Request: fold
Amino acid sequence: MIGPKCIRLHHEDWMWAEIRCPDSAQQLVFDFSHESEMRLQDQKNLAAQFLYVMRTARLMRPYPFHLNLCGLLPGTNQYAFMEQAFGIETPGSSVKTLADIPWTISPNHYTVDFPLNDLSKPVIYLSPNAPRCFEPGEWDHTAVYVIGAVVDKSVRRPVTLAKARRAGVQCIRLPLERYFNWSPGSGKCLTLNCIHDVMATAKSTNGDWETALRSHVPKRLYMETNIYSRQVKKLLTRI
Reply:
């Protein structure tokens, strides 16, 4: 008799096969062409955030992304920080190289690995400065979504939008303003793992962006609507 443990183990094996397979899973690309825009500490923070990205990828049900790390070059500081974060040089670690992790690492620009003329897989870059945001219920399961591998706090210029436009890639942003009233000084800076979690939930819910955002955006970054309304009303009474 096949018990629930065997079924669970079989399901876990299938999930890992899905994560590793770029042919069946939807592609999610991280663009590592921004290393020159970041300080060394920001690059370390970026590598640490990918630990949480992989944690979510392992738990993503039922259809996980296949992660592509494009433009990550061996011999660079960012590559070394990634190796350090994932314990490549740790004695006794089962992970000997970054290639052992279920993702695809490519030294190429993402437009090389995912040609823009392939209309069956449109390339869409997520940028906080994009003129258009996702609409409710909008999710393209055939699209290749690209996330800039950059720590936003260290970059004050719209580098992701500028680079994507120069490459001829269409851009879109998360619909943050539609659902949140941002707290003063929050800066709207989301970590890479937060963005990945939002995208994972949006994928599994076919574009339920309110659920995706409210499930993962830290509450310290925004004010609840009723609190915001009370503060505005209080301010108006003083005028």
